[in-house]
Amino acid sequence: MLDRPTPYLLVDPDVLSANVQAMARFARDRGLLLRPHAKTHKTPEIARLQLAAGATGLTVATVSEAEAFAAAGVTDLFLAYPLWVDPARGARLRALTDRVAVQVGIDSVEGARALAAQVPGCSVMVEVDSGQHRSGVQPSEAGVLAECAVRTGLDVHGVFSFPGHSYAPGIAAEVAGQESAALRAAVGSLAEHGIEARVVSGGSTPSASEVDSDVLTEMRPGVYVFNDAQQWELGTAGPEGISLVCVATVVSHSGGKVVLDAGSKALGADRQVWATGYGRLPDHPDARITLQGEHHAVVAWDGSPRPEIGSRVRVVPNHVCIAVNLHDELVTTDGQVWTVTARGANT
Ligand SMILES: Cc1ncc(COP(=O)(O)O)c(C=O)c1O
User: Fold this and answer.
1) Is the CB of 82 under 6 A from ligand 1?
2) pTM for this one?
3) What is the pLDDT of residues 164-174, one digit of tens each?
């Protein structure tokens, strides 16, 4: 661990590179395009690794993430989100589409019309709800929306879904099946309206290994580059596949516990109902972060000798995308410092 003030995020570039290569190989072997979600890392150096390994482009969630990655030289970006494009956002999107290939998610007639008014001819992907019940139309309604988009002059590329309900134990295969069925039905719905879905895009990190390459043409996992305590507890990745940790200092032994200087402002506060704590300690797999404040993590210790006050420990955040967005820099075990360029790029 480096001589750097804690808490900070530390990346093992060898594990990171192995994760990037493994997913690229997985997609290539199945004839799928890989468009990783860059909201996980928000970092140009990691985007370049993914593109060099064969990613077709990147997925982003916001116009400002797209601006950050376009400025870093990425030329193909999918905003997988049902944007509301008002004049100000429209001007920014037009500036982007002048420079790089951009596709935008739509899931409503209102959204499609607003986009077409601001960015005539924009490439769009119709979002389908495959069971997460967040955004997206029902698969059978995809064709109506696609036809409406075509009438407003938009260029419909295809359909996409995010199977976020894969974030539960033992459910990945079932959810991948639901996503495949939903996307297949959406492709059929577009065909009934005379529109060909050239791209069929889906996937999350937990469901990636179960992807149906008979239906999907593209996959968009994001978390796989680092993995995190959620993936560890879901069984998607073992501790050896985790490339990012937060380095924290033991500041107290109050009440026999171990208290760290990394709380929700360094690790994030996400905790799924099935998670065993607020993060995991890879060097102490039975210890649990049972309580978190903004600047404290309280660890129920596992019975092994407690680390001394003043010593440093490695913590795996529950949800790495949140943790990364809380830090300005990622430092690597071989001494590089990468700026989290798209940190806070939420608009
Ligand atoms: C639209 C979309 N695509 C892809 C992903 C990446 O999935 P994961 O975070 O499981 O890697 C996300 C994650 O939230 C998403 O919202």
Assistant:
1) no
2) 0.97
3) 999 999 999 99
